Amino acid sequence: MTDQLNDTGRENAPIWNKKLIQTYNVSGPRYTSYPTAPHLSEQFSELELLAALERSNQRGSPLSLYFHLPFCDTVCYFCACNKIVTADKKRAQPYLQRLDSEMAIWAKHVDRARPVEQLHWGGGTPTFIRDSEKRQLMSHTRNHFKLLDDDSGDYSVEVHPGRMNLESIAVLREIGFNRLSMGVQDFSHRVQQAVNRFNSFAQVRDLIAAARHQQYHSISVDIIYGLPLQTVDSIKTTIQQVIDLSPDRLSLFNYAHMPELFKTQRQIPQETLPSPDEKLAMLQQSIELLVADGYIYIGMDHFAKPHDSLVKAQHQGSLQRNFQGYSTHGKSIYGKSAYGKSTQGTATHGDWDLLAFGVSAISAIDAVLVQNHKKIHNYNQAIDQGSLATSRGLRLSSEDRLRGSIIMQLICHFKLDIESIEAQFQICFARHFAKELVALAPLAVDGLIRLTSKELRVLDSGRLLIRAICMVFDAYLKAPTQIPESHNNLEKTAFSQII
Fold first, then answer.
1. Would you tell me how many other CB atoms lie within 10 Å of the CB of residue 46?
2. Shortest CA distance to 493 belongs to which of 79, 31, 16, 178?
3. 329-358 pLDDT per residue, tens
4. Which fold would CATH assign to domain 39-395?
């Protein structure tokens, strides 16, 4: 394997430098929000949420809706999601009825004229519910909110290909979905047995063919590296098979083994896991294969074909990052992007509010983050009492918005317009971030970034380490110092950077 991945000349291909990766490979947040979810407070007042909704209505921007459907037929041992494992399909209907009730509560405070330009079903396994229930949920959603009828929205759903039939692909398209995300993870039968998740190549091939026949706008596939019994050769086979299927998007996630936090991971013996060096080899090889096939490296763990809307959004400066990952639509509670086109007084891609429904779901509304109860009985009780199911929240301070804007610009665009940040937030960047600039100095010396008085730019060598770069601006972590000296002291959250 080559040491520099961008020798191919492919756009946005990161440079691979094993020494730098090992030096700056720190554990930290995935930055689907800032501050991240662990910093939400139970002291948050519902009055603040209602005030945020009122401000949101006055702005009149489009809406993004998220629905958390937590049910799974079987447990995948690697999973860290909020889920309910059951074979009893009857458990879905009471939950769907409560989702309807929850939407009704929210809808009382939301202007019905605001169009829903993004909608996502996540889980769990959203397609656990029957086809009739899929129609029911979308019908109830349409009763409460203004869904688009012209197929122009970004309406996506996650599916488990091993638990999916071809007829459901047509049903999902019929009720309005136009994007499909499949959690393949690995095609090796040995690996599938080790993690208790099964889907054959033939199943995935047929589902993708059916989705293309139904004219879905985009098909995405998820792969995980670092799973038990995985080898460099076995994941190469999986990646090549995925390339043969030619999905529009691909996510390459790192498996972080944290059985002390996630009970299901205790089913995976530590000795079956690949070593850190093997994981690095898997990642390097996978990126090389994808880039050579023409996939564009969007950032973090996302790749897309050149024609895909993620690539176009990144070029246009409108790419967002939210609780579902990178998105062409989303919620920026930090202010307008320095790279997006905006017009004073009008809504832009970054102005949308995210309303989230279901157990543990997180909403983002006009500089406010709120999360529903994580435990199903607490969620049920709140909805049955006719109240919102929110349990924690946070109103972003001006400092949160400043730092969140910086982190989101870096993670989406690999560059930061310092002059724009200074104008938007009325600060002197050099004075406000004096400690952070000291912490960035070794990254600049090592060739990860280029820093001037006008711009911070992430170089090709730093693209794979974007999380470590963003962490310098995270005020909720320990005071920034030279990351190589301090990485062992940083808090462990969610998933590790690379290995």
1. 12
2. 31
3. 655 556 554 444 333 333 333 468 999 999
4. pyruvate-formate lyase- activating enzyme (3.80.30)
